[in-house]
Amino acid sequence: MSTPLLKVADLTVRFRTEKGTIAAVNGINLELQRGQVLGVIGESGSGKSVTLRALLGILPPRKTQISGAITLDGRNVLSLTKRELSKYRGGEVSMIFQEPATALDPVFTIGQQITETVMRHGATTKAKARARALEMLDLVKIPDARSRIDNYPHELSGGMRQRAMIALALSTGPKLLLADEPTTALDATVQIQVILLLRELQRELGMATIFVTHDVGVAAEISDRIAVMYAGRIVETGTASDVLKTPRHPYTNGLLTSTVIGARRGETIDCIAGMPPDLAAMPQGCAFAPRCPLATTECTAAVPMLKKSGADQFVACIRQEADGRHAA
Amino acid sequence: MLGYILKRLLHAVPVALAVSVICFSLVQLAPGDPLAVVLPADASQETVDAVKAQYGLDRPLVVQYFIWLGNVVTGDFGKSIATGRPVLSEISNAIGYSLSLAFLASLMALIVGLSLGMLAGYTIGSPVDKVASAFAISGVSIPHYWLGIVLVVIFSVQLNALPAMGAGTNPDAGILERLRFMILPAVTLAAMPAGIVTRSVRALVAETLARDFVTALRAKGLTEVQIFGHVVKNSAPTALAVIGVQMGYLMAGSILVETVFSWPGTGLLLNSAILTRDIPLLQGTILVLALFFVAMNLIVDILQPLFDPRIKRI
After folding, report:
1. Residue A282 and residue A23: Cα distance in Å, rounded?
2. How many domains does chain A fold into?
3. Per the CB < 8 Å rule, is B221 touching A107?
4. A327 found inside a domain
5. Nearest-CA residue of chain B relative to A150?
6. Where are the beta strands (DSSP E) in A240-289?
7. What's the ipTM?
8. What is the tens place of the pLDDT at every residue in A5-28?
């Protein structure tokens, strides 16, 4: 394969809080090829959103310590100057937020918000920027874009607002799109439309995408590769079909079985017992051990490293034999 | 937008009427007989009745109200009992003084309040914020008549730099000369609204900065200056409401300050009307000041949707 578009090496993000410094992301490694879609799944608080924010450089500098390396297209993102960073954000990498109702400025029209972004990243005249905004609104299939462009966010439905935000994010032609649970706040039927739209746009425009979700079904729908995060670490990664068909980590397995789809009325739904650990008081060794059905005393000895398991699958679990079977 | 303005104007009418009822009846509740002031103590019953009839004070209150209202609407506020001059001309003389003082004080309060508030809101928790907040709290809590006297002691008595009272007697005085008389009362008057505006703007800016869309604006690469523009437009409607009310107070609430500085405005007029139980003058002045309040709120109502389109739908 060619050199990856994005390379993340040993990324750690710590927050200074009243309880002391906590690591929300703990030494993760990622690689993403051009045009590839990576689905990142995990529970709330597993560090998915923080990872995205670190990639975009929008974590508040006063409260965060970031270490490791983020390289996009050969450039080290963490050493960009303030000025370079604000060109990088929204230009090379852009982001779709979970809640379009709060992520769009309520007192500016959709058109104004897209136009100012396009102007910021290279458009020469207001007229050109507005034309681009219109083109984008058409692209995300907002009906009657010509009149919708002058609407305020509150005048649009939730699905339309999210489409507008997608248009905004893609208006500058980014190399990498970060999607932070973009369908979680939407109605189920609208969710599917937005997912299909995103998949279609991704194929058409070819930007690499990192898609964060806690919904395994959504991840399966859109991803080439999947990374499973737990308590700030990647515990399993591989191609989407490998990870979803032959999950190797007991946590992935738990995520896949804790679904209401296919469950019958009256039957209990399998779910993972317990709660994700408090990041300020992480357990020794494997963070999942306290909730893991396979855990032994060995698991609490050291943090397991990601190891190759199968053709293109990596898993961080010591109860995992090289042939992919769980040790008895 | 035109429909919205008309609707707001119509809404202001019942408010203004209610204000007029309150103005009229509050004065009736006040103790003291207005006639006692103008009539000699030994006036005969016939004289008293004649004067009562002359001012319409012998009619039922409701009738008095409607007669008064009818006159007021046509611009006739009656005659001052104390001076015999038309109330309207007394008020219009004073209102010019009060307006110019309120205008200068608002300008000071706005400049100080907006800049300190923004600064503090952007730097919550920092030393800058603490200094600004301490300043704001002092402005709100120091009694302004006391502040006025202290300023007079310092700038007029000790330094002999600024006049202590009045508005000057030279009718041909230039703007600078007039301003010299206005500085101390205006500063005194501006202290409280400056503090209130600082505190409100600080809270508004901090609240706006914490909202999701500010992160999203940063995420799309806007500069801090551009983001500031968004913050201002989002904070403007609430800031306007606070400022509008404060300007109303500056007009109406300046009784003490105008008295301390003998500034010949509506406050001083009100003060003397109360002391002499000059009911027509009192009613007229209070009504004009209250209507000024209504007008300020109307202006704020009309301006707000220019910043936030969601307000128009309410």
Report:
1. 9
2. 1
3. no
4. no
5. B309
6. none
7. 0.86
8. 999 999 999 998 887 888 899 999
